[in-house]
Amino acid sequence: MKVFVVNCGSSSIKYQLFDMTDESVLAKGVVERVGSADALLEHTAKGMTTKQQVVAPDHSAGMKLIFDVLVDAQLGVLKSISEIDGIGHRVLHGGEKINQPCLIDDNVRDVIRENFLLGPLHNPANLMGIDAAIAAMPNVPNVAVFDTGFFATLPPHAFRYAVPSAWYTKYHVRRYGFHGTSHRYVTRKAAELLGKHAGEVNLITVHLGNGCSMTAVANGKAVDHSMGLTPLEGLMMGTRSGDIDPAVLFHMHSVGKLTLAQLDAALNKQSGLLGVSGVSNDMRDCLAAADGGNENAALALRMYIYRIAKYVGSYYTILPSCDAVVLTGGVGENSVAVRSWILQSLARLGVKGDEKRNGQTVRGKAGPVTTDDSTLPVWVVPTNEELMIARDTMVLVKGE
Length: 400
Ligand code: AMP
Hints:
Blueprint: E1 2-8, E2 13-19, E3 24-32, E4 39-45, E5 48-54, H1 59-70, E6 84-91, E7 102-103, H2 106-114, H3 123-136, E8 142-146, H4 156-159, H5 165-169, H6 180-194, E9 203-208, E10 212-218, E11 221-225, H7 247-254, H8 260-269, H9 272-277, H10 283-291, H11 295-318, E12 324-328, H12 329-334, H13 336-345, H14 355-360, E13 367-368, E14 378-380, H15 385-398
Parallel strand pairs: 1-6, 6-8, 9-12, 12-14
Antiparallel strand pairs: 1-2, 2-3, 3-4, 4-5, 7-8, 9-10, 10-11, 13-14
Helix pairs in contact: 1-3, 10-11, 11-13
Adenosine monophosphate binds next to helix 10 and helix 12.
């Protein structure tokens, strides 16, 4: 069975084609700058990566280009596009109505549309991708896998904000949670690696990429999560502030004369590592700058680690027990230095880092980065959201 996985952004279409007999990736790539005059298709297959300028005025055109390259005589991996058995879509926001992966029909499309306000950057793009895929291959089942889905099990005391109840009942203001497919994937994988049943594992999963989020997992289910109504709350991120006193906004509106749009841009795009370091949103650049003596970059890193330690401490308290802290995402999987600071910052919880293991667990490797006698083990588990979506799609397409 072959499954095509799509992740549509407002100006990009990322894709992977899986052969589910062995879960191998046959091809992957991205169309960037969709909608502009100079779109770019990067395609990797058969061990070769090619880049070409393409014309992709909209998502439909971009999707057609991808299907064309998949059957191209030189770059392609399929004889015919009809070899694709199912298409899985990453969708940001299912609101409160959908929390499971599901076959896409008009009802599901309506729910994705209803949640445009809660996911203004992603849901419209996700729906464009779905429509483009349906238009290109009308007879193939499409599956939506929601980023919010894993958090349907959060109890009300974790998902409600202490604001007037009508904000929730009338305007749906609550914690939804994001990166759910990643947290779900690493939860299952960690359970497997720890030799535990998926429904029995207790974890703190920490996704550290450009966006950063954390989940408390009790008996395999999410019971708390750091992101909220939007992916802005919680940990410090590449360009996002994470937690902040909401009154800062009133202050900056009245004293700094910032408009709502400027406040939104400041917290989402000009804060986090970028805002504090003044160097970059990219962890590698911040590490290099701090190494070179840049004090703002060093402070940004310290704040980043400090916030993670505070969240681990609070999640540790609310869990019945904790089998491991799991690190994932671009930073969690690759940065030996950041992991080393995280390990040190968790010493009070009985974490004993193993620098040799830490140094060796890179480039997609999974494993513990603590000593065997560490009271609280810390593991690195590389995430694979696309594979999770492909698995979900296969199950629904097969009707198992
Ligand atoms: P992601 O969003 O999961 O792709 O992660 C992106 C982040 O991972 C960026 O901040 C990168 O700088 C960071 N990253 C990737 N590789 C490394 C590395 N070897 N060391 C430090 N940070 C890294």
